[in-house]
Amino acid sequence: MRANRDTCCRLRNAARRFVRRYFDDACTIVSTVVEVHEKSVRVEHCVRRGNEEVGRGFERRVYVLSEGTSFRSAAFPSDLREHLLRSANDMTVSDESTATP
User: Fold this and answer.
1) Rounded distance between C-alpha atoms, residue 21 and residue 34, angstroms
2) How many domains does the chain have?
3) Which of 12, 19, 47, 65 has the most other CB atoms within 10 Å of its CB?
4) Higher pLDDT, 57 or 22
């Protein structure tokens, strides 16, 4: 978020579960930027338990600016868009976590 005036809002998302997971399963979530447009980005997520893929999903986020009590879509700032484009071409973000009560 930049100066509490602009942000990325989730526009659409979906997920599929392939096998049953349990609350204390240690899972790895791999997130990959797959599309970067002028005002939106699509990120795909893969959830793995060990070597097994247990879920997959995606989200589309749009860049918005706040104007008082309303929002409007806007083009990504050039530095953020360049970072997203590099991410789409060069890297996958991975987060390994274990759910605990």
Assistant:
1) 26
2) 1
3) 47
4) 57
